[in-house]
């Protein structure tokens, strides 16, 4: 058996069930493990800590899987893990919702593996060499559990480079998804482009937050910034918003959003779609003296790492200042950050700072978080990334 021995004093996180062993924590690798091999991890006193998957190319040299020494990491073990994760999502799948994250990597104790369900199709992303080796088992287990029409791989991620893996896109099982798959979320229909859309095609992590925000939009003027295919826009439509403007820099996103409005039979005369940079557009609206009742700001990840946090905080501050300036008195800002490096307290400070700069008195009236199919694993705080604040301007 391949054996990894940790340096003295470098075993604490592993004992606390954190799944990452950094290469710098390793004292010796016995048995010449190859990338993707299962290894046993021991401390310097030769006490067994956990089994994991090895990758000598990665900064995360071992991704820990199992802390019970009596278990064996074999085919059945992988099948059980996949089943457990999928079964935890079944309550979210019903008549008015057929899109969920089935497997959320480390948070589901399946490091480096993401699987999303879009109606009858499943999209899979593989970030680690170890998962690459057992991909066939995982695909087969997903087929047994859910009988999808097709499973498509979208492993075109920066993180694969660090693992020494090439980009891989393509069909893993069954039929290639059509250009647009019709999915339903919160009872609203969306066309999802699994093969070419952003991320794996749709941001189902905002499911609950869209519905919660929409409650405040009846008869209101709404500005949905970073709209993508219209998650917040369509929920606001359904709740009876007076008018909605959606902004995104991607032409494909705007095109899909317009189709989604038609698909749901909403009145497109109440809607304005703008393809633009959000900051530029908000500045223009400010110059024109426009005001809104509800503004959504759901930008992409500004802080990909902790070291980028300071610069990102300034970007979040500027964006939110612009948003706050455009709100009517009593108006609401639903503002999000999907940067794992920015915690909720820091985010609150940034928004408070933006409000000071905007000369607005604000209240935090609700805290958004990520939904149950994107669980936060207690021993892996890195799995918490999505947060938001609902802010009232006085
Ligand atoms: N709110 C969306 C998800 C947003 S994802 C939903 O509910 O589904 C972030 C979006 O921001 C992407 O669609 C991306 O095209 C867009 N984007 C990124 N940078 C942008 C910019 N500077 N201006 C406008 N849109 C931008």
TrEMBL record:
Record CDD domains: AdoMet_MTases (cd02440), PUA_RlmI (cd21153), RlmI_M_like (cd11572)
Enzyme Commission number, as recorded: 2.1.1.191
Subcellular location: Cytoplasm
Primary location class: cytoplasm
Keyword list, A-Z: Cytoplasm, Methyltransferase, RNA-binding, rRNA processing, S-adenosyl-L-methionine, Transferase
GO function terms (MF aspect): methyltransferase activity; RNA binding
SMART domains associated with the record: PUA (SM00359)
Residue span, PUA domain: 2-87
BP-aspect Gene Ontology terms: methylation; rRNA processing
InterPro entries, sorted: PUA, PUA-like_sf, PUA_sf, RlmI-like_PUA, SAM-dep_methyl-trfase, SAM-dependent_MTases_sf
Entry superkingdom: Bacteria
UniProt GO cellular component terms: cytoplasm
Keyword Cytoplasm in annotation: yes
Family per similarity comment: Belongs to the methyltransferase superfamily. RlmI family.
Descriptive protein name: Ribosomal RNA large subunit methyltransferase I
Organism from which the protein derives: Sphingobacterium mizutaii
């Amino acid at each position: 058996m391949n054996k990894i021995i940790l340096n003295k004093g470098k075993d604490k996180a592993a004992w606390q069930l954190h799944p990452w062993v950094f290469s710098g924590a390793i004292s010796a690798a016995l048995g010449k493990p190859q990338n993707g091999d299962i290894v046993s991890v021991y401390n310097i006193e030769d006490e067994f800590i956990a089994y994991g998957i090895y990758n000598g190319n990665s900064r995360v040299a071992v991704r820990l899987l199992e802390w019970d020494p009596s278990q064996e990491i074999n085919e059945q073990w992988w099948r059980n893990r996949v089943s457990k994760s999928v079964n935890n999502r079944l309550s979210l799948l019903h008549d008015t919702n057929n899109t969920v994250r089935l497997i959320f990597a480390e948070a589901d104790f399946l490091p480096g593996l993401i699987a999303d369900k879009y109606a009858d199709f499943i999209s899979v992303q593989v970030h680690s060499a170890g998962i690459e080796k057992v991909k066939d088992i995982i695909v087969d287990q997903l087929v047994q559990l859910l009988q999808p029409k097709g499973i498509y791989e979208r492993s075109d991620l920066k993180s694969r480079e660090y693992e020494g893996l090439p980009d891989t896109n393509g069909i893993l099982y069954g039929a290639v998804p059509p250009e647009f798959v019709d999915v339903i979320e919160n009872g609203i229909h969306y066309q999802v482009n699994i093969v070419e859309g952003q991320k794996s095609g749709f941001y189902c992590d905002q499911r609950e937050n869209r519905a919660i925000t929409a409650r405040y939009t009846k008869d209101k003027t709404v500005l949905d910034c970073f709209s993508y295919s219209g998650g917040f826009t369509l929920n606001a439509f359904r709740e009876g918003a007076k008018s909605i403007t959606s902004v995104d820099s991607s032409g494909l996103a705007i095109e899909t959003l317009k189709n989604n409005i038609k698909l749901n039979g909403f009145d497109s005369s109440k809607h304005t779609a703008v393809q633009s940079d959000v900051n530029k557009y908000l500045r223009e609206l400010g110059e024109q003296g426009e005001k809104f009742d509800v503004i959504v700001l759901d930008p992409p990840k500004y802080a990909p790492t902790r070291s980028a946090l300071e610069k990102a905080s300034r970007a979040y501050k500027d964006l939110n200042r612009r948003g706050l300036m455009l709100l009517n008195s009593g108006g609401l800002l639903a503002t999000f950050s999907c940067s794992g490096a920015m915690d909720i307290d820091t985010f609150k400070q940034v928004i408070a700072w933006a409000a000071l700069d905007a000369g607005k008195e604000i209240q935090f009236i609700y805290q958004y978080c990520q939904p149950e199919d994107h669980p936060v694993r207690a021993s892996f705080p890195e799995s918490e990334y999505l947060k938001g604040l609902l802010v009232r301007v006085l």
